[in-house]
Amino acid sequence: MRLTVLFDLDGTLLATNEHLFIPAYFQSLSARVWPQDPAGFGDRLFKATYTGMFTKDTPVKTLEESFDALFYPSIGVAKSEINPVIQSFYENEFAGLKELTARLPEAAALMDAVIADGHQVVIATSPFFPRTATLQRLAWAGLPTDQYPFSLVSTYEDFHFVKPNPAYYAELLAQLGWPEYPAVMIGNDMEQDIQPAELLGIPTFLVCDPANQNKTNKHPLSSQGSLAEAHAWLRQISQQDFQNDFTTIEAMLAVLNATPAALETLVKDLENDLWSKRPEPAEWALNEILCHLRDVDREVNLPRIQRVLSEADAFIPGIETDSWAEEMDYIHQNGQNALQDFLKARLQIIDHLNKLPLSTWNKSLRHAIFGPTTFHELVSFIVTHDQNHVAQVKKTIQMLTRSIR
C-alpha cells in the first residue's frame, strides 16, 4: 500500500541542537538587520514569533502575515524598508549557521528507499521559518529539493498553524488534497511530532536512541527506534490495512480549522480567469465550489449546530444544496469573496464547538435522512464534506493548470 510519509526535519533528518541553533539564528539575524540595537530587535523578533506563530490558533492569516502584523509595527519600520536586508541575510549569513548542524548519512539513504518504494514524501517541519531558510536546511541535510520530489515542504508563507497544533497536520494533508493513501509521521519529538499526529489517527515512528525509548504512543501501529530502523517500520506498516481516523473530537476540530486555511493557500496564485472555468462540463468551477462551501456553512451547518445546542432531541431536516449552484448562479459570483465569507461562517462554527463538554458531543438528535444520531456524528458529516470539497478544489486546480501549460 502506498503511504503519505511525513518527515520532521530538525533532529530527525538533520542533526540540530535547537537550544544552540535558535538563539544563534536570532542573534545573527538581529545583528545583520538592526546593528544599532540587536538585543532590542531580537527581543521583538522573539515576541512576534511566539505570539504570531507559536500560539496562533486560528485560520485567519498565514503565519507570515500574522508575524508581520505584530513585528513591523513593534520596530516602527515598514517591511518594505528592511526586507532587502533580511533577504540578503538569508542569501549570505544564514549559511553560516550550518556549522551548528550535522548531516545524518542515514537520512539520504532512508529518503532514497522511501521514494523507491513509491511513497509520497512530505517535509513536515514546523513552519516558522521562511521558505529559503527551510530549503537551505534541507540541502544541509543532503536532501536538496532539486533532487528529491517532495510533494510539499511546509513554510511560514503558506501555512496558518505550527506544531504541536493538530491543525498543522490537518492543514498539511488538506493542502495535499486529502490523499487517498494514509499518512504516517516520522519525527524525533514526542510533543511536537508524535502526540499531535496521533490525535489525527496518524501512526508515528519516534526517532530516538534505543536507551531512551518510552512506550507512550497511542496508535497501535506506532513504533520507535533509530532513523535507520524507520524503513523497516514503513515496509511493515505498508502491509497493514488501515486508514487515518479523523472522527475524534480533536481531529474534527483540527480539520474544521484547516479547511479555510488550506483553501486560501491552494487558490492564492490562481489566475482570475480560471475561477469560473469548469475543468469538465459536468464538474463545478472553483467559484461554484467556494460558494457552495460558504452557503452550506451559513445556511445549513451553523443553524443545525445552533439548533442542537439549544434544543433537546433536535430534529434535523434534510436539505438539498447542490441545486443552489444553478439557482444562485454561483459560477458568476466572486470566488475570492466567497472564500472570505466561508471563513467568517467557519469561525462562528468553531467558536460554538470549542470547549464543549463531552456530554454535548454525545447529545442525541434525529436526522431526516440518517435517523437517530448524535451531535458528534453530525459534526463528522461536516468534516467529511470539507475533505471531499478540498480534494475537489485540489483536483480542479491541477486539471485547469495542466490544460494551460
Explained architecture:
With about 400 residues, the chain is α/β, with parallel strands linked by helices. Helices cover about 50% and strands about 10% of the residues. It is built from 15 helices and 11 strands. It has helices at about 20-35, 40-55, 65-75, 80-90, 105-115, 130-140, 165-175, 190-200, 230-235, 250-265, 285-310, 325, 335-355, 360, 375-405; strands at about 5, 15, 100-105, 120-125, 150-155, 185, 205, 225, 315, 365, 370-375. Helix 1 packs across helix 2 (about 40-55). The longest helix is centred in the last third of the chain and has 29 residues, at about 375-405.
Brief digest:
The protein has 15 helices and eleven strands.
Order of helices and strands: EEHHHHEHEHEHEHEEHHHEHHHEEH
Largest sheet: number of strands, sense, barrel closure: 6 strands, parallel
User: Number of helical runs?
Assistant: 15
The averaged pLDDT comes out at 95
Please give the alpha-carbon distance between the first and last residues. 32 Å
Please state the overall shape, judged from the principal axes of the Cα atoms.
globular
Unreliable runs: none
